[in-house]
Amino acid sequence: MYSTSRYASKETRELAKKLARENRESYISRGKHTIAQLAEIARKKGEERVHIVEEKSGRAALVATIKVDELGRWGWSGEEKVNE
To answer: Class of 2-81 per CATH?
Structure first.
């Protein structure tokens, strides 16, 4: 499942949607969801990971990954730079 950091630019949201499509995963609008809420949504959908597209200076900079287990526990599992 893909989402963005809060208050993401339109370009960052579009990139997150594109990455979700390319990887055949779902996208959810971040809105006011906390990371814990995103992890719970992912668990209910049967997803094992949440990818958060984060930005720096208004541009997508990295994708942080969160692992979610079947009990809803979650933890940060890494990040990688965005290759646009």
So the answer is: alpha beta
Q: In this structure, how many other beta carbons lie within 10 angstroms of the beta carbon of residue 59?
A: 12
Task: Give the number of other Cβ atoms within 10 Å of residue 73's Cβ.
Answer: 10
Q: Are 24 and 2 in contact (CB under 8 A)?
A: no
What's the CA gap between 13 and 71, in Å, rounded?
Answer: 28
Q: SS3 of 18, please?
A: helix
Domain spans of the chain, in order of start = 2-81
Per-residue pLDDT of the chain (84 residues; tens, 9 = 90+): 999 999 999 999 999 999 999 999 999 999 899 999 999 999 999 999 999 999 998 899 999 999 999 888 999 999 999 976
